[in-house]
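Assemble and predict.
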Amino acid sequence: MTHPWYKSRPFSAWIPAGLSATHKVGDRKERPVVDEAACSMCGLCWIYCPEGIISRDARIQINYEYCRGCGICIEECPKHAISFEDER
Amino acid sequence: MTTNYTIKTLPDLEQVAPGRSGCDGCGAVMAARWISKITGQSTIMVNATGCMCVNYGYAGAPLHPYIHSLFENTGSILSGIDAGLRALGKRREVNLVGLAGDGGTVDIGFQSLSGAVERQHRFLYVCYDNEGYMNTGGQRSGATPYGSNTATTPVGSEQQGEGLSLLRRKNMVLVMAAHGIPYAATASIAYPLDFMNKVKKAIEIDGPTYLHVLAPCPTSWGFASEESVKIGKLAVETRFAPLYEVEQGKKIVLDRRRSKGTPIIEYLKAQKRFSHLLKPENQHRVDEIQSQIDESWRYLESLAQE
Ligand SMILES: Cc1ncc(C[n+]2csc(CCOP(=O)(O)OP(=O)(O)O)c2C)c(N)n1
Ligand code: SF4
Ligand code: SF4
Ligand code: SF4
């Protein structure tokens, strides 16, 4: 991609905002799965997820394209509503 | 008086794209995401070399303007942007934020930061403290705690990890407060609302502000990726990293409720970097750490008295 600045500043590096989204880093041994019946929509998993890939609209949804399976959402859920399932 | 955020009222919109590199369960990246959540689309972030720059900035995760600074010049770049925005008459529209690790703040970036706050530029500077130079493999920094096993303070016959007492470790918040800045505070990634409300308070101030956020690092501290928040909480509860705010360099508000004084051994035994301290012959070092923490706490309490 060519940035308009590039010609005048050929030694600068320019990275398009949001480029990271092209890196589908969701590579894990286990996937966190939400039990919607147990979830109280408290939002803690949404805020703690280091990847910022949990959404909290009508329900809690995890974007598995980017989830790394770090386990923080599971550990911090006060309702124990998230658990790991084996990836196959 | 502005009202504080609750989890319900936090903005849903992410200012950060997914797909960063770096380690699972990283505490620092939580802080980075939360800053941008509060400062919003009109943020300019200046981020020194370190894990956040290499794994997050270079990956292209921030969705707002973002500049990679050197270790030495984060404060200078912030100063230049602040002056430039003022000249353009656009200062009010932009939230200017500096972000750097402890190496880039406590050690190498210190003089430019000190100069920038002395000149009264308006910006929020956040140091994410993972207590070492973690992006290059975990060397000690001026923020590395006593007893910690790092790449440059190893455990062997001559030495049992970092040797400098916690009482002599640079206290960056008090150092920044001594510049007389309007607002300086500590935080921990274990308490996101506390942190984000401090960010909000800081960016509303027309002057330099400083936040020092403890950011547990699973890779270099040696704990499982899911434990970052737990470790961050233990650090606060044991008074290893108490939460406090300093206004106008004088008025200190100490969070006594969260720092209930859990014995430090609970914190030490949860991390590999302190595992040598659990040997019987090192019991006296654990006792030393406890007494260093008790003394630091008494000092903070004495400052916090009206
Ligand atoms: C002047 C200079 N010296 C050394 C380096 C190599 N280097 C890159 S990242 C890093 C560690 C940064 O440590 P810190 O600021 O604590 O941030 P962290 O990596 O812990 O996030 C080092 C030493 C550099 N980029 N510039
Ligand atoms: S496992 Fe980690 S990356 Fe995946 S959703 Fe939970 S907190 Fe986010
Ligand atoms: S932390 Fe648990 S209860 Fe709270 S929103 Fe997430 S899944 Fe639901
Ligand atoms: S080394 Fe530590 S601070 Fe750096 S990305 Fe990994 S967990 Fe985060």
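The longest strand of chain B covers residues 95-101.
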